[in-house]
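Reviewers of the previous submission asked for a worked example of the structure-prediction workflow described in the proposal, so we include one complete record here. The input consisted solely of the amino acid sequence. No template or homolog information was supplied to the procedure at any stage.
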Amino acid sequence: MRTWPDPYLPGHGDPSYGVRHYDLDLDYRLATNRLHGRATLLIEALEPLDAVRLDLSGLSVDRVRVDGAKPRKVTVKDRAVVVRLATRLDAGTSAELVVEYGGKPAPVPGPYGPAGWEELTDGVLVASQPYGAPSVFPCNDRADDKATYRITVTTDAAYRVVATGRLLASSARGGRASATFAEAAPTASYLVSLVIGRLVQTSLGDRLTLTHPARSIPSGSPFPRLPAMLDACEEWFGPYPFDAFDAVVVDDPLEIPLEAQAMATFGTNHLEPGWDNERLVVHELAHQWFGNAVTAAQLRDIWLHEGFACYTEWLWSERRGLASANERARHHWTILAAEDQPAPLTDPGRPNTFDDWVYKRGALTLHALRAALGDEAFFTLCRDWVTTFSGGNVSTADFIALAGRHTAVDLGPLFTAWLDEVDLPAPPA
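From that input alone, the workflow returned the following structure tokens.
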């Protein structure tokens, strides 16, 4: 039986090679939901390779070339393309792999529901977390294989395109428009996003943009608070790790927002005022540090993303003069204490990965750590975590080791109780 890089994501990823750069040229017709793509991948063999397996879901492959030459064989399966090389690729050597493909894109099914390509009422949203990227392009779909990206999208001129990366160029001709984006920071495939819609852009100041339907923003909407949120996050966690942040609001309601590299996507329902929306905005912003710049190599360590993002909600609540972080912690501890804890936080189990208890227990773990270290050492640790591992991948063991270097206190019992044991510890003071 095949062993997958992440046991929580069977059927995704190949550890035998890495992708260093993706160049994607996408042509999309909204009226017929037809996509034609040309993907150029610069790959590096991590061991001797006779074949390259790519994740691609529900799309047909028209042509493949490896360093300009025809491969020995190409096999297209439901969610994968296997390219058998004409010449073995030695470990440490690179090759350019070009795949031309197309079809009617659709979401990728999986244990957490459909992900990736989603047709909206009037547009498209691609939220790739956790396994939706293969609905758009052939990739090595694993979180610990980060690459740089260049993405060009051509579609109907009446629509705006937003994609992962900084906008480099745009043009329009004959009712069609193209936009090219580039992301130079290492990016996991699940953090690549694409939005097509009838949208306008509003500057929220330095490095911040709100892309939204052409309508007035409701009074009291949380999005105008983004500059203050960014200032607070930089104070707590260090400099913002990317060039800019784009909060994209599609013209449909969404159940939940989702982060991507240097952007996050929200629904029209998230424009409305109220704490529940405000916390979600700062939550997705916090993911730029925790999840995007510093990325867990495996989903079992998702608390390193969601615990930090959830705890940022509590910090922001305190900064806003609402409930203190301690009050938020006590409230959510009381809720968790009334429920059975199904598994330890460091291995919550595939069905539980995105359950609310993982988010809240992760945040409570950080609150307990803050109580043990004190504010100065805790926030220094947070900044050091990002500085040390930005652009890379991490595990819970990495965090425990780094935390131990910030105090003379033995943190072993704290981490064992909150991370490794099932029973909920006493509430942190």
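The chain has eight helices and 21 strands. We consider this example representative of the routine output the project will generate in years two and three.
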